[in-house]
Amino acid sequence: MSLSRMLENWSRLNQRDYYKDEPIMWGMSIDLNKCTGCASCVTACNAENNIPAVGKEKCGSGHTMSWMRIERYWDLPEGEADLAVEDSEYPERGAHFAPMMCQQCNHAPCEPVCPVAATYHTPDGLNAQVYNRCIGSRYCGTNCPFKVRYFNFFDYQEDIPHPMEMLLNPDITVRSKGVMEKCTFCVQRLRNAKGDQADKGIRGHVEDGAVQTACQQSCPTDAIVFGNLKDETSKVSHAWESHGVELNRHEQFNAEGERGYRVFEELNVEPSVMYLDRVRDTNA
Amino acid sequence: MSDFKMKDIEWAKINEDVLASLESPRKAFWIVLAVCFALVLCGVAAEIYQYNMGLGVALMNNPHYWQTYISNFVFWIGMSHSGTLLSAILLLTHADWRKPIYRFAEAMTFFSIATAAIFPVIHIGRVWDMYWVLPYPNQHAIWPNFRSPLLWDAFAITTYATSSALFLYIGMIPDLAICRDKAKGWRKKLYTAMSLGWMGRATEWIAFQKTYVLMACFLVPLAVSVHSIVASDFAMSIMPGWHVTSFPPYFVAGALYSGCAAIITLFVLLRYLFKFEAYMTPEIMDKTARLTFAIAMAWNFLNLSEYASIWYSHDMFEHEMLIDKFTGPYAGVVWTMLFCATVVPFAMAWKKVRVNMWAMFVISLLIQLGMWLERFQIVSPPLASNHEPWTQVVVWPGLVQMTITAASFGWFTMLFLIFCKVFPSVSMYEVKEMVYHRNKHGKQKLQDLDKIKDDMIKTEEGLS
Ligand code: SF4
User: Fold this and answer.
1) Residue whose C-alpha is closest to residue B99's, from B426, B416, B422
2) 3-state secondary structure of B98
3) Which of B286, B227, B218 lies closest to B257, judged by CA?
């Protein structure tokens, strides 16, 4: 069983970055300049991934389940404390929006803490969550600095009124109570795309644009770019490169005109999602 | 010797007194037992409700995933530590004032682990799959994750529970034999089976002493490692407020501290319920209180050094976290904790207080309250003030969580009282030993173990 498998692969498992020779590593880039905060990505994500709508009451008690959320931050003039928000409802410089979902960290703090190894790293750079294996200790959730894991505090699927269950996406499971879930980069679509390629006899390569995540697909301003970071011709690696963001660095050195950063980079969690800073009118 | 005022207790009387405690406790015993049982029933009801509805009814929510179940877990594990301290460390250091009270301290150790072990079960989302944390060969062909501190917890608890149960049992064998000789009915059967044919021969005593000391040597480092592992649940994470390197020693000190307070509480309770006034004397209380005070100071030092190291560090998040603890929504909890666990123990500086049973009872309860809040303020505030400003939510434990917490106290006290009713809660043979030595050597301290052994052999020969 797995012990012998572990011993067989010992030297490979011991190697640092042992996924580095894999042909695919999924990554994303989100342009906050383009994001209008319309939340269609959130809606698309909910529909694609069978995420339950928990209702007003449970939303109020903090049991919201959306894997993707739009965080709104008021832009305050340099040096002004956030107290200002209380004074005026719409501060002059407006708000900015940050779509936030699992950053598919390459040094994911959620992975080592799971007692049953229900969350682990796949060779193509995803932080996978195995619902069937999850026992609900919620340690991953507390240790995720982005707080993008969502726990099924109730059996939401039982509340779906009758014909509505027809709306569920058959490609993905419906989670039961006591299980942790989170953004998967629409792993069902990625697996399908890989399968399609394999049918054509191509392995380890998915054409850029052949697969889209639900949020990317529905974004009206194309703020979200998704693709293979190992593929140098892909749009996403182009975005990363042209905005001076690199993997394996925990501080990005943006040159003039480069706006790239990864959230909480100083924690060294190596997110696979890059954000492009909003351009502000500093004179306002 | 006179400071224990025990030389007058005759050997036969020791047996009688202790055995009487098995038969006729005060009426209050039954009242306390009934209250505890009622609490347990409430807790079971709450758990059934939570099991059926889902964990949401406990009012934890999405970024605030952990709350009182975890803090209770840490609290109860912590409480178990001073039982080991009293019986094992003080055994190895020949502090013989421990003798009349160590049995119940050991029992406390075991039952508080039994209580702590319930909390992971209540806490996790899918209890029915809980056994997956154990490394057993299975058809999933998958191991648990050995890097996870929660898995280390599972090992630590099982090891600690087994060995403390063994320690308690081994230490009790000679007494069980005494009980066997006196008892009737179902008790006779029980004690006969459990005393393993103990005859009190010199060879048996020698083997017994060896085993007992060996177990003590094993338990001391184990206890330290167990709570260090519990501390690494927090210290191994990257959350501000949990990611503190000094947590393992801090947790061990905190464990000993709350445990000592629990010993004082139970000391007073047992003394009253089972009429042990002649054994659990104010002088012993005095020593226990001094020990508690010393540990309190160690805990306070570690607490302060934690604050200081955060305050002078450059970690912005930790910094915010600390400020938030003292001024934020959970400030009340933190200040109450500091009052109960830092200010209150100074009352023990006065001897008058230390020998006053009821004063000590109140102080020990306050300290325990403080230490419970300490665990709460470790778990909750960091979840309400972490890296991600968007998800900072303040959550207070709801009715379900509080009922289950109260039930855990009921459950512990219930088990403990039943133990004291069925088994001798004062060690008869050790008290005799103490009386014997005090009569024989006067103030002279016991030098080494060999001597004790020789004396014991002689005594046994003299007896038979
Ligand atoms: S963002 Fe959170 S859930 Fe996603 S991989 Fe990183 S730590 Fe894990």
Assistant:
1) B426
2) helix
3) B227
Note whether B322 and B310 are within 8 A (CB): yes
**Token pair for residue A149?**
């894991």
Strands A180-181, A150-151: pairing is antiparallel
* Alpha carbon separation from B34 to A188, B21, B337, B404, B411 (Å, rounded): 56, 18, 30, 17, 11
Ligand 1 pocket, mutate which of A25, A107, A149 (most atoms under 8 A from CB): A149
Nearest to B335 by CA among B369, B293, B358, B363: B369
Structure token pair of residue B274: 């089972």
DSSP secondary structure string for all residues of B168-210: HHHHHHHHHHHHHHH--HHHHHHHHHHTTT----HHHHHHHHH
What are B427's strand-pairing partners?
none
* Nearest partner of B118 among B161, B68, B73, judged by Cα: B73
Q: Name beta bridge partners: A228.
A: A26
Whether B118 contacts B73, CB under 8 Å: no
Q: Cα distance from B371 to chain A (closest Cα, Å)?
A: 23
Query: Does residue A279 belong to the interface with chain B, where contact is any CB pair within 8 Å?
Result: no
Q: How far does residue A143's CA lie from ligand 1's centre (Å)?
A: 9
In tens digits, chain B (464 residues) has pLDDT values of 334 444 445 666 777 777 776 777 778 888 989 999 999 999 999 999 999 988 888 888 888 899 999 999 999 998 888 777 777 877 777 777 777 788 888 888 889 999 999 999 999 989 998 888 888 888 877 888 888 999 998 888 889 989 888 888 888 888 888 888 777 778 888 888 888 888 878 888 888 888 988 888 888 888 889 989 999 999 999 988 888 888 999 999 999 898 889 889 988 888 888 777 777 788 888 888 888 999 999 999 999 999 998 888 888 888 888 888 898 889 999 999 999 999 999 988 888 888 888 889 999 999 999 999 999 999 998 888 888 888 778 888 889 999 999 999 999 999 988 888 888 877 777 777 777 666 665 444 445 555 666 666 676 666 55
